Known about the structure:
By secondary structure, the protein is an alpha+beta fold. The protein is built from eleven helices and ten strands. A four-stranded antiparallel β-sheet has the order 1-2-4-3. A four-stranded antiparallel β-sheet has the order 7-8-10-9. Strands 5-6 form a two-stranded antiparallel ribbon.
Amino acid sequence: MSFSGMVKEELSRQISMARHCRIAEIAALLSACGKVNAEGALRFQTENDAVVRKYFTLLQKTFNIDTEIAIRESRQMKKGNVYSVEITDSTQALTVLQGTKLSLNEADGDTLYLDNELITQQNCCKRAFIRGAFLASGSISDPEKGYHFEIVCQDERRAKYLQRIIRSFDIDAKIVLRKKSYVVYVKEGAQIVDMLAIMEANVALMNLENIRILKEMRNSVNRKVNCETANINKTVNAAVKQIEDIRLIEEKTGLHNLSEGLSEIAELRLQYPEATLKELGMMLNPQVGKSGVNHRLRKLSEMADELRTNEEELL
């Protein structure tokens, strides 16, 4: 099962004790997946069995409506089933619509939208609404691969309403148009953790946090290794250049013609090509610090560059 599926499975088992929160969650579910036909029947349809179970239970506990879950094979290319719950009694359907403050969408005549913000006044109801919206049309990427949380909305009005509710929890939710749908999304890892906390997906939250910690540790180790590798390469390249310079001086003028300090450091560098500046300094008598060693090697480099210049001028 995908990480997104595990989150929905966890959320599907949570039934709020408060009726007003259950109503808010039903409103979000129906706003995304509900339709009303010409006879006034209210149908809820989804491809997720955990989501249809949640809706079925919420209907029973909130409105005391007993109905059945219908199952049929999906007509699309991918395999799977389509689950639906239909309230054929128009009186019961109207009770649900009035209770959830949902109205028919004039643009298409059968989908539903929330036209009254009364049911999401309290923070607990806002949490329930976000939970219902995610169950109906949301997804979350595998945190091992990346951080992305989104809820797909049918139109801009629904998207902006959902965005406003999410932002009330200090989450920087954004909206993007994808084909004909409006997607409310969050991409920052820490804020996705907050989204799971808001929806009360505590098990998924802990799993995500564990993955985040491991990824951050791996990234930290990789950064240190890369930094050390870069430093080693820099040191090796510098040592190779220093040895080339010393060999040139030895060939052209001889190391015995150098001052004692320069001659001593030149001999040590040739003898210990992999030694660091600090290690070379400790081999000198008296000992010299890194800056002193670096100064002497730089002098040798300048001498070698001057020899090269003179050689080029003769040519």
